[in-house]
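Dear colleague,

Thank you for sharing your sequence with our group. We've completed the structure prediction you requested, and as agreed, I am returning the results in plain text so they can be pasted directly into your records. Please verify that the sequence below matches your submission; if there's any discrepancy, let me know and we will rerun it promptly.
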Amino acid sequence: MPPAPASSLPGSRPGVLHSQVIDWYDTHARSLPWRQPSADAWAVLVSEVMLQQTPVARVVPVYQEWMTRWPTPAALARAPVGDAIRAWGRLGYPLRALRLHSAAVTCVDLYAGQVPSGPAQLRALPGVGDYTAAAVGSFAFGQRHVVLDTNVRRVHARLLAGTARAPGGTPRADERAAAQGMLPGSPVRASRWAAAVMELGAVVCTARSPRCQTCPVAGACAWRAAGYPPSQDAPRRSQAYAGTDRATRGALLAVLRLSTAPLSRSALLAAVTDAGGPGDRVQLDRCLDALVSDHLVDRQPDGTYALPG
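Please find the predicted structure tokens below.
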């Protein structure tokens, strides 16, 4: 079902919706460290990379330690990449740490140690795609961009299209068009709108238990007006973590993060098994080799293994 034009929603006009959501955000937004007035573009970039597929509650303590240690791109660029992987801890998807380190080096080499503001330059940074570039441009530089994460897509699906959730996969052309049509004309207000809609989806218009009674735009919600019809799409299955290659890679990195010296292959694999990790030798070998190929682990000249740098 294509999204309805904002002006056709029950009792709504785009300008009214903007004011309702932004006013709500101004009063109810969570106090997060990357939203503080002192947070610069580097702080926003770090937060956005850490928040990819990771809940806020898990990100905050790692982010705070990271920014204390590496408050600028230059500070991180000077550090061994292994330190970044170690500091990433158990946030998951540790390639993000590797790419964030590479992004810091790029900022130093090409942009005098600053995060660039141009959309093309942001997208060219390692680990930065369309969404992250739009988010940094909007939240750090006050630019006018469509910022579509999972929370925003869900709000738009309910508010504009009257469906319980957004389609699976990457945002479709009609979603982007509807989101573009909802953007305020002023860049400053558009960036505020982007943050406010994202927060609304995170704390009110949630996936499982939406708090419609506290929603500032409940009267304009097409999904509510339609009687909250269930989604016609097949339920999305959450992928099990235990036993996967991703879990095994995480277990290998956890041992190396704690090790004060390089480990032989046999010692490393035994340490993973002793710590309660998987005991499948074929899987362990495969995952260790993949970590080396991804440059998350270094194989030393003597055949031992350690974090890079």
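Summary note from our side: The chain has 15 helices and two strands.

Kind regards,
the structure core
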